[in-house]
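Record pair follows.
FIRST:
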Amino acid sequence: MSQLLFLFIAVPMLAFFATLFWQNKNEKPIGNIVRFAKVFNILIAVSYAAWWMINGLSPVSYKLATLYETEHFVFAIQLYYDEITAVFSIVGALLFFLVATFSKYYMHRDAGYKRFFNTILLFSTAYNFIILSGNFETLFIGWEIKGICSFLLIAFYRSRYLPVKNAFKAVSNYRISDVALMLAMWMMHHLTSRNIIFPELGDAKTLAVASGQAGMAIFIVCMLILPAVIKSAQFPFTTWLPRAMEGPTSSSAIFYGSLSVHIGVFLLLRTHPFWEDMAWAKTVIIVIGASTAIIATMIARVQPTVKTQIAYSSAAQIGLMFIEVALGFHWLVLVHFAGNAFLRTYQLLVSPSVLNYLVHHQFFHYIKPEQKKISQLKAALYMLSIKEWNLDTIMFRYIWSPFKWLGKKMEFFQSGVLMLVLGVAGIVFVAAGYASPKTFQSLQHILPVVLISIALAVILFAFSFRQSALKAWRYLITGHIYIIAAVTFNADHINLVELVYYISGVLLAFLLGQYCLQRIKAIDNDILLNRFHGYVHEQETTGFLFLLSAMGMLGFPITAAFIGIDVLFTYVQSGQTILIILLAFCFIFIELAAFRILLRIFFGPHKKLDHPVAFRSS
């Protein structure tokens, strides 16, 4: 029966590929495929849970496949089933059924009907990858796919300004959580000297205590709390959640009301054995959860839009779940999760009808409210809540603006000659680092830092660049070259196949992206990054190909670079603080720069006025 765990992932994945062969107008066959997937998903979840309970509630573990293996590293897809998985899988299957059934009628004759169900089925695959994950590598595959699905659904109405802007805002937060999870995987590998599965997290904690590696354990826990806080929209990252409601109501229900937003709670539940004895970690989680519950409740009470109210209310309830996880009330968390997920899904799905009723009722039965005096404290809290505690402004000013400012200070990179020299020098460094790293042994401590600093400088320049998209795209591949060079000089020896994994993935993505941008440039010789162009209207296939290339550039799980990046991380030692910080920033801003190019060139209001153009505001 352990082998049947694969069905949880296989069914929505096969349905996703099946729907790709139909056109948008073929709603009936697409609906039939989705109907089969959602019914079969419920049967699998309920049947497997019943078999699991009959057989004594013993956890089930199954290694599905080993993608790459060396003496010091194993990349395997490991599946795991226990009471946490049972609850999340049944709730997920039921909510997928409800939302898909609702969406069949809600999205009828929508221009993005097929695109919507493609993304929902892919999300279902990612969700099952996460809840069935038996190790960090498997969890990270689902984590990445889920993030892309979320991005695509927020920007579903891609001809409008705000959905595109808010999709980029959400993916900026997601990328921080992605890199934090990568760092947790990396440090766990250095702590245990192997790739462990989740049931062994308790042993890893014991090993950290016995070997005196408390610093490693603290770092891992911090890197686990951060992605959990971001994905579940906890303080101070709460404001991305209402911005994510720009997508269709049904996608908001399944993503930001029910399933996706609770993944942070799942991560804390799954990794609880590692940090359950750390009082400071429990205190941090409780403080974050309590702060979110209080602040989000205050904000929700004064918001003028129903989706924003539901978003903040959901974040407040998840804050309480964080407290319950930290206190060890895991069954209470699972019950709380199921109740909150169903409630928020219901609220979001009926919200259009409720609004229609309330508007009608207010029109015929309006009663002017009485004027009441309020204290200065209440007035201050009211204004703070109306402004959402200025969290958006604070995040932009103190996190993103400094990096944009740094990127703008790198204007000397605009020189074509300099970039050519940098590119050639980077390739030479990669070859020299692989062929004879011992030749530069005296510079081994400083040279990787210098090379990764060059990579970060180039990437930040691409992130803030407002001229040609082709130039910005070339800067990103240059950044990748210097990342590879830095890691090759940092390691005593790297297997050639590991470099091939990384280079082949990003190189193919770069060439595909270059081809797409050249095609767009040939239209009217205008691909500047100082505005939205909206070329997806007339070049939808090219836009899809560039989306694939952007995902490949960041090492998404559709290219060999996904394995290559994960393996190369292991060659950075745990004591190299500066190197790992710079490397983390590189991987954060590579994705943001690539997706910025995608959004500016293909999404947003079309610059041509030969068709209806959405207003800038909603």
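SECOND:
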Amino acid sequence: MPAEAAILGLSGEERKLAAVMFTDMVGFTALTQSDEAQSLAVLERHNRVLRPLFPKFHGREVKTIGDSFLVEFDSALDATNCAVEIQRVLHEYNISSRDEWKVTLRIGIHLGDVVHSGGDIFGDAVNIASRLQPLAEPEGVCISEQVYDQVRNKIPQTLVKLEPHDLKGVRFVVEAYKMAMPWEHVVTSSGVESDKMRIAVLPFTNLSSNPEEGYFADGMTEELITSLSGVRQLTVIARTSVMGYKSTTKKAKEIGKELEAGSILEGSVRKAGNRVRITAQLIDASTEGHLWAQNYDRELEDVFAIQSEIAEKVAGELKIRLVEEEKRVIEKKATESTEAYTYYLRGRELVRELTEPSLRQALGVFEKAISLDPSFAKAHVGMAESYMELVNGGYEPYEQVMPKAELSVKRALQLDPDLAEAHAILASFDYQEDDTHGADAECNRALELNPSLPDPYFILSNLAFLKQNGDEGLRTAEACYRLDPGRPRFVERMGRYYYYMGREDEALRHWEKTTQLAPAGTYRSMTEYYLSKGDIEKARVYYSKAERLEPTNRWVTWMKGFIAAKVGDRETALAVIKEIEGEKRVGSTNLNDIAFVQYALDDFDSYFAYVHRALDQHTFQPWMVMYSPLLAKGRDDARYQGVLEKVKKMVEG
């Protein structure tokens, strides 16, 4: 019998690691003393709302203690997500309810050993969870450091470290974190450690005499983002979002506020022949004070060592103690060939342009890098990404080019099984191949290696919506968006998901915030929102704004046909369909585009025919067909069940 169980006097016990949640209703004791009848009604309402939420997150209700619940979970992430969902449901319920007395909770969560006996659980984990609960604010959640370590890069909510507390009945100091809820205005200061752990690496300035060397400075920015992502206590904003600040005149405080980043890393690169001079400085975004600065004047071949040193210095300044695994990841050298590395950085720059010529040129540049160093795993990933973008852009047929992408990424993983970017690309490939199990596994492996990668969260969100799990889809979409809040694709999808799921107020707040960061994606989402509301005039206003910003975007074409059909201009709608059919792009999402216009024309036979073709050709857009209010009538059609059957087969493999 374990010592703790013996002390407790238990028999037939089982010990296991578990996450324990303890909830408590604010003000309930006072209510019972003043109005017993009302307190019983409130307690019944409280139990009715909470109990269905526990099993949704694989929670087991252990017992109730008056107005408190004790719930056990196998996963700290499940417990945390359940707590957030409880507070969200109660918050929305309290806003809409006319009840005189609102149900408001505090929640505490701890991860540790528990002892099972007689249907109950005992041990420090239970005691600590119950003591953490009073530290939470009303409508708030407080978690221990053990829970924080498991969830910090897996949830969209900001976690703010609290001052150390001596908890009654606990023999040691427990580090605790407060979770910032979506509806609360969190005021932060330079002393809040959790804010500083969210870092943005601004584009390094190119000071080389040759402006064409700009790709090298941009490459340094991206490589530093990757290096810092090896520090697991940091949340690193993705490259797409920070590149919008290239040559900006905005101050660190303003940038920090826009990206919700407490730390800013900025600097410059001067490359001359075989020498490189890199300057870097770490800034506290809330005070604009310099935390650290350093100049590096080295041979080009030392560039990897410089990246490692900067990452380790940043970690040190933020009081992060690196473990050996993190040091190994940070100090790993991508290639021994500086020439191959220079070609690789140039290839990355070309891929980001996303034009047919740039993607084809990128393939050639990556091939040069590989010829110089065949073991350069990242260059093979670059090849795979170039192939996939050629397919996604409709410049190459899926069947001919995707096998080349698969070969390249699998070669990268043979060379470096722990390369997170390779697992992320393979996840994307598996998703397009309708291998949902493979995509799920590769996404989770990529995030295990690098929790700051947004793309795996994006795929996991798509998978959740395919499985008709909208709550999970929204949570993973939020995690993706928080890591890359400036990427138009994520901005657009996030706003759509909010209104798809009936959270219109959040959608409108989201668009108000993202108009500056990603205007085109915001205007596209708002066009669809107002169309679904039947407000054609407002929809046209936002459509015109999106069209002016990105006139060649394929959405502009099909939406023109959709709006025309909605106002009875059948001739224009049919002309748009012919225009889409006549595009040179191969496959791509054209089948979906035509389907949407046919839907607006009330030609449901054609609509479903094109949707099925899109499913068969791996270009189906589930978020539109399965969730968009614009296409709601299609989901009432008996033929929609045939779509769901195909989706189900795809999900089940």
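COMMENT: The longest strand covers residues 105-117.
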